[in-house]
Design goal:
Blueprint lengths: L1 H35 L5 E6 L11 H10 L15 H9 L4 E8 L5 E7 L2 E7 L4 E5 L4 E2 L11 E5 L11 H15 L2 H6 E6 L5 E5 L5 E5 L4 H19 L4 E5 L5 E6 L10 H16 L4 H4 L17 E3 L20
Parallel strand pairs: 1-3, 4-7, 7-8, 10-11
Antiparallel strand pairs: 2-3, 4-5, 5-6, 8-9, 9-10, 11-12, 12-13
Length: 333
């Protein structure tokens, strides 16, 4: 009985060895066949934020790079003669190419997949240099054909962008602040530029209104913009956009406004606070329907006077969501 069991194990082992060897032989034969095949052409695909409209590097630019590397005219060459890793490295030396992947498909076509970098902001340094930075903080040259509007930051303290050491925290804050603004059409249209002051904090210059916005650092970005939007809606939209010289949202839970020609006063409007909280609660209870959101109004009417508008204490009960795209007009009611 034991002899029959051992023979069965031996035959099983032999069978799997033969099957494994056969698989290796077939794999090697397939690889040799593919490597002995020739390149039958190439296909270039470009993806990225502007690839569908005006790409920063077009198909011709990719062909030029491949030609310089000796690959663009490789039709008819053996596939085995292509050093795909070297070609990828060559393409990625271009500043506008974030990632390049090259491979041959089953039809012998060289597939060239390009991922463009995405500019996030335009930077002006104190020395007068100007450039873009992408979502990874990589410095990019200016492009005349770039159609989209980017947040503009001025007075960057270093001549070049810094990702480590001094000013690296400031760079991270620029990317966070720019990312938030670019995702919101209202703030994209309203914020003309962001100045970096001596303390490396941010001051916002609006398109509409003769005032400046003290923003502080890049912490609590969404709550700060939420408070600023509520102040625009509840205050400035009623008394005008040029009433105040400075609006400060850097204090947690508050908006401190300084009237023109005044030393600035700071008050808490409990009735305004209650109405805003009620507005926030009612807005959160509504389903995200843009038609309904356009008509959202406070459940209680706030009586606003020139005396109780110098400062607004806005402390939402929960972390407020980012302002929605459909926001009320800033014109006086």
């Amino acid at each position: 009985m034991a002899i029959k069991i051992n023979i069965r194990k031996v035959f099983t082992a032999i069978f799997w060895c033969i099957a494994g060897a056969g698989g290796v032989v077939l794999l090697v034969a397939a690889i040799r066949y593919r490597n002995s095949n020739v390149c039958k052409g190439y296909h270039i695909g470009i993806t990225g934020p502007a690839s569908a409209t005006t790409p920063f590097i077009d198909r011709k630019g990719i062909v030029d790079l491949l030609t310089a590397a000796g690959a663009a005219k490789g039709q008819g060459r053996p596939i085995q003669s292509f050093d795909l890793r070297r070609l990828e490295t060559t393409l990625e030396k271009n500043l506008w190419i974030k990632d390049a992947q090259l491979f041959f498909d089953n039809n012998g076509i060289l597939q060239v997949r390009i991922l463009e970098r995405e500019p996030m902001a335009r930077i002006f340094t104190r020395e007068g240099n100007s450039f873009y930075i992408d979502s990874s903080g990589v410095q990019l040259p200016l492009q005349d054909k770039f159609p989209a509007r980017l947040p503009v930051f001025t007075n960057y303290p270093s001549p070049r962008i810094r990702l480590q050491g001094e000013d690296s925290l400031l760079t991270a804050g620029i990317l966070q602040l720019s990312g938030f603004i670019r995702q919101d059409s209202f703030w994209t249209a309203q914020i003309a530029q962001i100045d970096i002051n001596a303390d490396k904090n941010f001051e916002l210059e609006p398109e509409v209104g003769d005032h400046r916005i003290t923003f502080g650092d890049a912490t609590d970005i969404a709550p700060k913009f939420h408070r600023l939007f509520v102040f625009y809606k509840e205050v400035l939209s009623r008394i005008g956009m040029d009433k105040y010289d400075r609006i400060d949202v850097s204090y947690a839970g508050q908006v401190v406004a300084t009237r023109k020609g005044s030393g600035g006063n700071r008050y808490d409007s409990q009735q305004g606070l209650d109405n805003i909280r009620q507005l926030i609660r009612s807005a959160q209870q509504l389903q995200p329907d843009t038609t309904r959101q356009q008509n959202i109004r406070p459940l209680e009417h706030t009586t606003l006077t020139e005396q109780n508008l110098s400062s607004y204490d806005l402390v939402p009960e929960a972390t407020p969501p980012a302002p929605s795209v459909n926001k009320p007009s800033l014109k006086n009611n």
